[in-house]
Amino acid sequence: MRIQAEHLSYTYNAGSPFASAALKDVSLTVEEGEFFGIIGHTGSGKSTFVQHLNALLRVPTSLRKYRKKRKDPPSNTVLKVGDFDLTNKKTDFNALRSKVGMVMQYPEYQLFAETVFDDVAFGYKNFAPEKPTKEQIENAVRDALTIVGLDFDEVKEMSPFDLSGGQKRRVAIAGVIVTKPEILVLDEPAAGLDPLGKQEIMELLHRLHSSWCRTVIIVSHDMDEIAENCTRVAVFSDGEVKYVLPPKELFTHSEELLSLGLDVPLTAKICLALKKYGIDLKCDFTTEDFLKQTLALAGKGVKE
Amino acid sequence: MRDMNAIEFENVSFSYEEGGTFAIKNLNFAVEEGEFLAVLGHNGSGKSTLARLSNGLLEADSGVIRVFGEQLTEKNLFDIRKQVGIVFQSPDNQTVASIVEDDIAFGAENIALPREEIGKRIDFALHAVGMEEYRHATVSRLSGGQKQRIAIAGVLAVMPKVLILDESTAMLDPRGRREIIDCVTRLNKEQGITVVLITHFMEEALRASRAIVMNRGEIVMQGAPSDIFERHEELLTYNLTLPLIGRICRDLRAGGMPVTDTLDVDRLAKEIASCVSKQST
To answer: CA–CA separation, A161 vs A174, rounded Å?
Structure first.
């Protein structure tokens, strides 16, 4: 499913003294099959944007209370996820939500059931069009727990609160992907985990991307993570999209990103520092390519 | 007479369940007064347990814990908590009041200080964390980094001699993380407060004067942070990774470029540049 947003704006507390514009006329398209990154510092509008994707936040025209007043100019907002038109109040938002999985920040805080099994089964039962059989539920939960790297028989009867931090997060993710969403959106999926836990979560996301979820969108502050994993990156700043580029091109704008108060990957920082010594290193900013290009640079010197 | 240690553990053991595995196993260690100590370790290595034992939030199964020479017992628990303050991980569940100054006052009010003194301490604490202009702000409208600085201020208002940060930066964005680390570095240098920084961000540990690495409730490595990072093979066995820049140094060397280990971007760039130019001349 392709995501297409045009002229999308959103204001919190509209019409009150606390009104603050979180999105200002944002246009952004995410193609099916991408591993898409969204960056921007706190308050830049990135969370507001992703919450639109499964209609946690609604375009005003899609709300029942919305009435077209004659004075209002016609809305030019477009927001489509696959065939779902999110500006239309007749859209089946429940069906949309089973297709767009949303993993919030620190999803382990949203675990609630007494056993891991019940927690993961909850979403599946809620979204099933007809009442699923016991067998269907068990199969779905087993598949979801297996793909996130947990042993179904070992953890199914355990309380989710007795698991380690990294395991809890994987159970929480299993609870979202159990409906087999085509698009998976994750807000800071690796935040707060130790380095090994981070690595495991990123491996899990790639496993999901190549099997269940055609499109993966991550919101992250970790630029190294973005540079290593994403096909394209959107940079949010002050409610607007400043850039949408593959990491390889984006981080050639390192100086601009730093001036926006954003971080850049370590590889980009080293490239920037190398410029001072008259060395213009070209690489795609993954660690692997950086090493290759740096070593090639030295090697080339020998031949000359 | 031994030198005064801020915190001292002698053969301390602790397990969460009776007969269960030890979260802290026969631990001996000391934090010197005025020191900036970093505690590293993967999730579940016992670093948070260590923090909680230090001010009596948890009670050791065996062994002796001393704070400024005084043995921690049930009787002096509350006096010791005045000396050892802990800031926790989540910025959202450490605030008790809706207005910044009320929140900072909470701890000081609890130890029944006179009103004028509390006022003075709020001034001091706000100044120490650089948040003076937020005195009357609403806590819920602050950023994560600002909320954590308010949490630190609340602890400072009790004027502890030791400040423990238990992964207090883990939930913050890079900017918020920098704010907190700058703040505690300053408190350590200017106010002489002993700082124990529990973290799994290797880069943060570099600010410390000493670092210890924990694994399965035991201290497995200690020394200057830069020395610890040089022992990367050993770090890997404790489920810790090198900071990315350390890995890049190592891999460049493995590829035949003789750079020395450094954690400074400019220095690495300089070394790469000199390697490249040497070879081309």
So the answer is: 15
pLDDT digits (tens, 9 = 90+) for A172-184: 999 999 999 999 9
For residues A43 and A70, membership in a common domain is answered with yes
Q: Give the nearest chain B residue to A39 (CA atoms).
A: B173
B137–chain A Cβ distance below 8 A for any pair: no
φ and ψ at residue B85, rounded to 5 degrees: -105, 140
The pTM assigned to this predicted structure is 0.79
When scoring A18, A194, A222 by the number of chain B Cβ atoms within 10 A, the one with the most, hence best to mutate, is: A194
A and B: number of Cβ contacts within 8 A: 103
**pLDDT (tens digit per residue) in B39-98:** 998 877 888 899 999 988 999 999 999 999 889 988 888 888 889 999 988 878 888 889
The minimum CA-CA distance between B258 and chain A, rounded to whole Å, is: 11
A192-251 residues touching B, CB cutoff 8 A = 192-197, 199, 221, 224
Same domain, A27 and A96: yes
Quick: pLDDT tens for B153-212: 999 999 899 999 998 888 777 777 888 888 899 989 998 999 999 988 877 888 899 999
Q: Tell me what the mean pLDDT of segment A222-237 comes to.
A: 92
Please name the residue of chain B whose CA is at the shortest distance from the CA of residue A277.
B273
Q: Where are the beta strands (DSSP E) in chain B?
A: 5-14, 24-32, 36-40, 62-67, 70-71, 84-87, 162-166, 194-198, 210-215, 218-223
Q: Does A191 touch chain B (CB under 8 A)?
A: yes
Q: Is A132 helix (H, G, I), strand (E, B) or coil?
A: coil
Shared domain for A200 and A234, answered yes or no, is yes
Q: What is the DSSP letter of A74?
A: P
Instruction: Give me the number of domains chain A comprises.
Output: 2
ipTM value for the complex: 0.75
